[in-house]
Amino acid sequence: MSAPSDAVPDAAAGSRPDVGPRPVTTVREADAADWPAIWPIVEEVVRAADTFAYEPTMGEADARAAWLEAPRRVVVAERDGVVVGTANMYPNRPGPGSHIASGSIMVDRAVRGSGAGRALVEDMIAWAAREGFAAIQFNAVVDTNASAVHLYESLGFVTLGIAPGAFRHPGLGDVGLRIMWRDLRGAAAGGEA
């Protein structure tokens, strides 16, 4: 499964003068009953084809299998009982790579920049630390997704490298994919690495 290139430009919200206090976002475990609320978010991000390396024509059944059924943990972000984002989490690789976590984050376009993505990533960091993972590795963060890169960096992730031209962006052509890493060894959940 592809790691996130993430569609959550939250980091820029802190500098926007038109953004007031952030609405309260709660993150909770998702289940099958949440899929009708998750699918429109996933569908929008997948169809846009500018932040995730998923097949843009992916159908709902395949998306459900990839997003909801395959990962180890799936959560949703809610505001006033409405699902506004989702994340899935899993070991980055099987066997000898299973001590490193990975995951994907998607946020409804209407609430991007308001803290939902940050809440989902913070939840992922806390989960991975609780589960005893040594680090979190995002394998495919689209280099042009500056807001996601900034959000991850603000939460302690570093870029290990960029594969040049590894992502075919629909408007910008071939752009880089970042491998991003957050060490969890010795760090308190949510604390600095």
| Beta-strand content estimate | 25-35%
> What percent of the residues sit in helical stretches (DSSP H or I)?
10-25%
Radius of gyration from CA coordinates: 15 Å
Shape: globular
Distance between the termini: 26 Å
Secondary-structure element pattern, one letter each: EHHEEEHEHEE
Q: What is the total tally of β strands? A: 7
Structure description:
There is one protein chain. With 193 residues, the chain is of the alpha+beta class. The protein is built from four helices and seven strands; from the N terminus they run βααβββαβαββ. It has a seven-stranded mixed β-sheet. α1 packs across α2. The longest helix is centred in the middle third of the chain and has 15 residues, at 116-130. Residues 1-19 and 188-193 have low confidence and may be disordered.
Describe the secondary structure blueprint for this structure:
Elements lengths: L25 E4 L5 H14 L11 H10 L3 E7 L2 E10 L8 E8 L8 H15 L4 E8 L3 H9 L3 E12 L3 E11 L10
Parallel strand pairs: 4-5
Antiparallel strand pairs: 1-2, 2-3, 3-4, 5-7, 6-7
